Amino acid sequence: xxxxxxxxVEEALGHGGGGAxxxxxxxxxxxxxxxxxxxxxxxxLLADELECDADDILDFELQLCDVQPSAxxxxxxxxxxxxxxxxxxxxxxxxxxLIDASGDAKSSSLRTEARSIHWSPYDRVGx
Length: 127
Fold this sequence. Notes:
127 residues; mainly alpha; two-stranded antiparallel ribbon; 2 strands; 5% strand; elongated
């Protein structure tokens, strides 16, 4: 895949502003214009899978997913290694803990703090 920002900057530097143009046929912008923006090996793999010629593929968008099976590991087998379980497991575990803690009448009557859970879909933003 050609980076969008880098291609736009290269195009602006090579063709814009009235300045000198850069004649580089191997640049991402030149490859994009000639239809060579994807690696030939990837195009061949896709063409084989789709049972067509690589030249028939004009463009594509792929989403790749990890297909490795989940595994249990750790020194005492205390960890689950699995893709796409981070949000699901943490939401389930926190809700289960809240329900379990709320069901104990004796400990709930002695406590004065409010119990709550906050789930946010913004876990990929970073801090």
